[in-house]
Amino acid sequence: MTRPLKVLVLSDRFPPEVEGGAEISLHDTLLAMEPSEFDLQVLTFGEAEDTEGRIPVVRLPDFVAWPRRSLCMQTKFTGVTGMAAAALKDLWERPSSVGLVGALALRRALRSPVPHPGSDSIMVSTSAFQQVQLRAVIRAFEPDVIHADNLRSILLLQAISVGSFGRVAMVRDHRFFCSHAHQSMVVADRPCVKCRFGCVEGKSGGRVVRRAMIRNKAFRAQALDTYDEVVTTSRFLAGSVERGLPQRAVTAIGNPHPDLEKIVSATRSAPPVVERSILFSGNFRHEKGAVFFAEALSEFRNIDGLKVTFMGRGPEEDRLKRIVEQVGIADRVSFPGFVGLDELYRRMAYAAVIVAPTLWPEPFGRLPLEAGLVGRPIVASAAGGHLETIIDGETGLLFPIGDRSCFVSVLRRLLDNPEKANALGRSAKSHVIRAFGPDAVAKRLGAVWQQAAKARRSDAY
Question: Burial of 318 by CB count in 10 Å (0-12 exposed, 13-18 middle, 19+ buried)?
Answer without folding.
Answer: exposed
